[in-house]
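U., I forgot to send this yesterday:
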Amino acid sequence: MRRMQIDANPRLRGKRRLMLAGAGAAFVAGAFLIAHSLAVRHVTATTLHVAAFTLHTKTVTYQNTAEGQLLAETTVARLSDGTTVHYGAAGFPEISQGVTARTIDYPDGTRAIISDFAQVKTIVPGSPELASAIASRLMNPPANCVFPGYTLLGYGTILGQKVAKVRWPSLKGLKDETIQWLAPALGCVAMQTENLVPQPGGKLKVLSKMETVSLSVGPPDPHLFDPEPNYNVVKPSEAMRKVFEKAGWAWDSDAQAHAARADQRYSKAVQMAGR
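Result:
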């Protein structure tokens, strides 16, 4: 498959920490989507029919340079049945070593986290409740994509799509801000994101910015959704260890602690699905 760079936390530095961020990002994103999906009105989890699309984004960080440094490139694609994939490789282009990864979210709530680099995958089971929540988010999202706690700031247009500009609720004790431009017609997918941090005197500075560089409405490349049936199914920690081994990165105590936390999140997700 083509190699791309996936989003990583711009506050983490170095090859090892960027890989850690990439390895755990699927579970962080999953928790966010589940929480907001459960907050919208539920519909019966029947066969979905939503807008199919493919969008390509790039993320630039301004943490160490005013000119900005390319941090990530990623692809988000969705089938008309609601199956959605995020595809890319963790870290800065010069250190990513082609560490590709894909996260496929299915309409029944099942999530496949696939490491094409290490040829392994992790499967997180779904549930009827989660399937209903996903259907609600895709087919009946909040008006103007204003999820609970969000603040509507205005409207705009990006690549021909009407977007709602919203501010995320701030995390307790933090003054950081996240502003997103969400497309209602595409299931509230983010087409632009700005992460801002306070400076001395209270002024906010853009730390990183994600922008959509291209959008195609219609059936995406089916290869993006390849479930790779021949890949071994492993826990997140094992997937991370195999990636580290192949990349030649140190499997040290920091990496092992992060892997253990990923396993804990995985176990909780499995428990939730089994209720």
